[in-house]
Amino acid sequence: MPNVLAIEMKYHDGTSEKTRYVTDVSKFVTTPSDTPANIAFLPRLASQSVYSVNAVRSGSTFGVSEAAFGQLELVNIDGALDAWANDGVSGRDLIIRRGSDAAAYPSGFSTIFKGVQASIEASFNRLNITFSDRQASLQKPLQTNFFAGNNSLPNGLEGVADLKGKPKPRIYGRCKKVPLQIINTARLIYQVSDQQAAVSAVYDGGLGLTAGAAYGSQADMETNVPAAGNYRVWQPASAPAYVRLGSSPARIITADVDAAGTATNWTTAQVLKAIALDAGFVSGDINASDGTALDTANSAVVGYALSGTESALDCMNAVAASIGAIFWVDALGALRMFRLAAPSGSPVTTLTKTQILDIDRITTRDDGLGVPCYRVELDYQRYWRTQSTSDTVNAVEAARPDLAQAYRRVTSTDTSIQTKHTNAPVLRFQTLLDVEAAAQSEADRRLTLYKAQRQMLKVTVIVPPATLALLVLGAVVNVTIPRFGCDAGVLFVVLGITVVLKDNKATLTLWG
Fold first, then answer.
1. What pLDDT is stored for residue 68 in this prediction?
2. In this structure, is the dihedral angle defined by the CA atoms of residues 5, 8, 13 and 15, taken in order, positive or negative?
3. What is the pLDDT of residue 2?
4. Reduced to 3 states, what is the DSSP secondary structure of residue 281?
5. Which residues of the chain carry a pLDDT beneath 70?
6. Which phi and psi angles does 29 have, rounded to 5°?
7. Which of 69, 93, 99 has its CA nearest to residue 5?
8. Strand 181-184 relative to strand 476-479: parallel, antiparallel, unpaired?
């Protein structure tokens, strides 16, 4: 029974959304009991159709996450598909399934990719449809809540005309020295976050103000002025948080702020989840066991203060970098995550010379090009508003050097590495970890990880579809081949995979 690739592609012809059906075999027609019924798939898929996904930038072990991307190459020698290039496909669904032509469709097929189309390019003989996974949806601005700018002073919490259309602030996790946005100049009211948040301290030019009793309602906040030099907060459950000052500020107003919940809600895994949910994912789209495993690996507190037009992807990259985590969207559209560590445990498969077509040892694109490092410098506890001498009051003179720095820093060093590797590099990482002890622990872990001699392999294999399905990012594989020290078998982590759809052939980027 033929192994069929069945592809569904949504498009819009200017009137309505419709679906196209393409296959790689000469004939595939759904039965009357299939969904959809009695559909003849066009036998147009060419041999070079591929998709590729990397944990981070190809050839690296840390950095920004990359969306999966691919290209369907369709045979168009007769020009029958020319008109497709005029239809709207950008952002519309694409599903690739594999199964037997005798199996029920789609229930008897395995979904090997679910994403969205990007564009169509036509040549004389081919029609190329580019596509990506759902991570592309994370590239849009995360904040879609804007100030109305319609205050009628002294009333209102939306600012006047100068704030109209500007994004509202939002807090994830625990954040220090966050600049507050004044939204009512008549009453000195500032917005902290457009979601529930708790304020633990407020500063005027770096000088801590005195906290008064919390307000019980918006009316209470608008009516009752704090004492001079004091501040009071209104931070209702499941609603925006505000601060009102008792006197005009001397300098820049900042605050230490926590998002809703407790420290268990402010881990890397939970903040990644919160951002993804705000970006349009639903709970069922997020792999729960991955989140649990990441919390087990590192449950330290992190934080992100959203203040502008940052994309969800930008925010998530900054958060994930805090503990060396990697996230991606899998072939079924689920958000996945793991922490990069030395490979261990039971491999999902063993690759031998029977499966391996080609194998190369490659140089990583990390700083130092893979040479073991002797020192790690790790930044933590970001101040979301740095303050120069002119920004601060004289009373905090001793704290001015600290307030002027965006991050605190810890280091971890092993000079013995320089004995063998004279030019051993220093690796520097920025994180959003809040506590020094957690940052030191992570710096020590990364030194252990990167001072060891590691290798990155590019391996091309042909494996059965069932094995191919196991080769996801973060999976551990065993490479047993008499090359590159792998004679007795060496464990590697999968950091990238490019799949040729018709041939069950894949090129893997492995690190270990």
1. 82
2. positive
3. 60
4. coil
5. 1-2
6. -130, 130
7. 99
8. unpaired
Q: Are residues 104 and 188 in the same domain?
A: no
Cα–Cα distance for residue pair 489/477, rounded to 1 Å: 10
Please give the pLDDT value at position 332.
Answer: 84
d(CA 481, CA 496): 20
**Amino acid, single-letter form, for residue 354:** T
Is the domain of 251 the same as that of 315?
no
Per-residue pLDDT tens for 116-143? 999 999 889 999 999 998 888 899 999 9
119 in the same domain as 66: yes
- 436-439 long-range CB contacts below 8 Å, 24 or more apart? 436/380, 436/381, 436/408, 436/410, 438/298, 438/300, 438/301, 438/380, 439/378, 439/379, 439/380, 439/381, 439/408, 439/410
Q: Which two tokens stand for residue 498?
A: 């490019």
Q: What CA–CA distance (Å, rounded) separates 258 from 271? A: 12
| Pair (287, 426) in one structural domain | no
Does the residue 144 lie in any domain?
A: no
Predicted local confidence at residue 57, as pLDDT = 78
Q: Are residues 437 and 492 in the same domain?
A: no
3-class state of residue 334 by DSSP: coil
Q: Same domain, yes or no, for 191 and 64? A: no
What is the CATH number for 473?
Answer: 2.30.300.10
List helix spans (H) across 298-435: 312-320, 400-403, 417-420
Last residue of a domain, one of 421, 451, 481: 451
Q: CA 415 to CA 401: how far, in whole Å?
A: 29
CA geometry: angle at 281 spanning 262 and 136, to 5°? 120
Determine the structural domain holding residue 110 and report its residue range.
3-132
Identify the pLDDT of residue 193: 97
Q: Where are the alpha helices (DSSP H) in 149-261?
A: 218-223
The total number of structural domains in the chain stands at: 5
Tokens linked to 475: 């999976």
Query: CB under 8 Å to 131, separation ≥6 — which residues?
Result: 51, 69, 70, 71, 72, 94, 115, 116, 117, 118
From 224, 243, 259, the end of a domain falls on 259
Tokens found for residue 116: 């969205």
Write phi, then psi, for 342 (nearest 5 degrees): -60, 135
Question: Judging by DSSP bridges, how do beta strands 253-259 and 197-204 pair with one another?
Answer: antiparallel
User: Each residue of 404-433: b (16+ CB within 10 Å) or e?
Assistant: eeebbebebebeebeeeeeebbebebbbbb
Mark whether 297 and 218 lie in a shared domain.
Answer: no
> What is the spatial distance between Cα 95 and Cα 114, in angstroms, rounded to a whole number?
5
CA distance 431 to 315: 12
